[in-house]
Amino acid sequence: MTASPTVLSALADGVLVLTLNRPEKLNSFNEDMHLALRAGIRRAHDDSDVRAVLLTGSGRGFCAGQDLGDRDPRKGGPAPDLGHTLETFYNPTLRLIRSLEKPVVCAVNGVAAGAGANIAFACDIVLAAKSARFIQAFAKIGLVPDAGGTWQLARILGEPRAKALALTAEPLMAEKAADWGLIWKAVDDADLMAEAEALARSLAAGPTLGLGLTKRLIQQAATTTLDQQLDTERDAQQQAGRSADYAEGVTAFLEKRPARFSGQ
Ligand code: LHQ
Fold first, then answer.
1. pTM of the model
2. What's the CATH number of domain 2-204, 2.60.260.20, 3.30.460.80, 3.90.226.10, 3.30.70.1400?
3. Which of 101, 149, 167, 225 is the most buried (most CB within 10 A)?
């Protein structure tokens, strides 16, 4: 009997659904799941049939971060090189999500802890079930927030809230995360997947080139001046203005009909 895949992958209507799939361990990451998730995001980069990604988890959790059973200190031996783990596994995936010029929707179906929370925050639009909680669990095991956590929390929340969450490891419920602007929306548990799928499908039917450029512009705004950003917007708009989807969008508007975007 073969073990079940650690990430389920399904493409329909332009949406690549990636489901973290180690439910008995709250979808915590082992090496295989790292590689499978990265392969899924790579596919989204390479396959023009993929026009949006939906990331979620199977079972009652979204992701509990690293599988802590993988490095049981009771087994003795030298201390692990966690910097190497980040460089080899987490950081490439984070960079792939951020550099993917297609929308990534995240449906946080349950608890998101440690790197699991921070991977969710790296996605473009995050919906969470109202029962879901986000935990910067690192302080409980003597680590620092990783997978981009310190960057995201400080930028989105500011120092007071970022520090309190990271230093106390207190859970943050989905509705409060939405109130604080850390995620897009908290939705009733029963509606989460239908809502996230509908959103991902509508993004996948959108003007992919323009959406990808928009994602890039907003991300880079954190590190540019207004002057630089005005130049970059000009260049991006020049590119978008030459796309088939721009012509289609304007034509559809003038003809009073829904646009049929090809993604080109
Ligand atoms: C787990 C885990 C887990 C294994 C639940 N591992 N089994 C980067 C660099 C390199 C290395 C280090 O890490 C990192 C990044 C990180 O992500 S560090 C942070 C790692 N994550 C955590 O510290 C969270 C640990 N988990 C928890 O605190 C709790 O499980 C949460 C709060 C997530 C959920 O609590 P409950 O809802 O009460 O569930 P539970 O604790 O009963 O867990 C259910 C099962 O899942 C249980 O197994 P069992 O066989 O007893 O049913 C847990 O052992 C297992 N599990 N997280 N990270």
1. 0.97
2. 3.90.226.10
3. 149
